[in-house]
Amino acid sequence: MTFATISDVSTRLGRPITDPNEVAQVEAWLEDIEAMILARIPDLADLVAAGAPPVQTVVMVESNAVIRKIKNPDGKVSEGVDDYNYRLNENARKGELFLTDDEWELLTPDVVSSAFSTRPGFEPDRGWWPDSWVPLP
Question: pTM score, two decimals?
Answer without folding.
Answer: 0.70
